[in-house]
Amino acid sequence: MRCFARERWCKRARERKRGREREREREREREREREREREREREREREREKVREREREREREREREREREREKERERARKRERERGREIESERESERERESEGEREREIERERERERERERERERERERERG
Question: Is the model's pLDDT at 110 over the cut of 70?
Answer without folding.
Answer: yes
